[in-house]
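REQUEST ID: PR-0412
SUBMITTED BY: lab tech R.K.
PRIORITY: routine
TASK: structure prediction, single protein chain
INPUT:
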Amino acid sequence: MSKIASPAVTAETAQFWSRVNDGQLTVPQCKSCGKFHWYPRANCPFCTSDSIELKPAKGTGTIYTYSVSRRGKNDSYVIAYVTLDEGVTVMTNIVNADAAKLAIGQKVRVALVESENGQRVPMFEPA
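STATUS: complete
OUTPUT:
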C-alpha cells in the first residue's frame, strides 16, 4: 500500500495530531457538558463550550458499517464508520485485513499509519 495523503494540521487540531504521533489516540470531551464528540474541534457541538479536553481513548471499537472500494483487479481499500468504545463514531479506513472477512459489529483496534509527510493517522484493523 502506498502512503496516504497527509492530513491538514491546524492550530485547532495540532494537539490531537501531536498525540497521535506520540502513539496515543484521543477523543475530545467537553468539560462543560461532559459529552465526548468527534472530530477534534475547538467548540463542543452539543453546548458550544470552548472548554474541550482530549481524553486518551482505549483505541478499540466495532465496525458500524463499511464499504470496499476497488481500484483495479488487485487493489482495494476499505472505508468504514467505527464506533469507539467511548461512544463516538469515526470515519476511517480498515487496514491489515481481508475485506472478504470483515463484518458489521466486528471488533477492531487502532493502527497508526504513517502518511506522506510522516504524520501518523489513526485507522483500524481487526482486533
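NOTES: Residues 86 and 125 are 17 Å apart (CA to CA).
REVIEWED BY: pending
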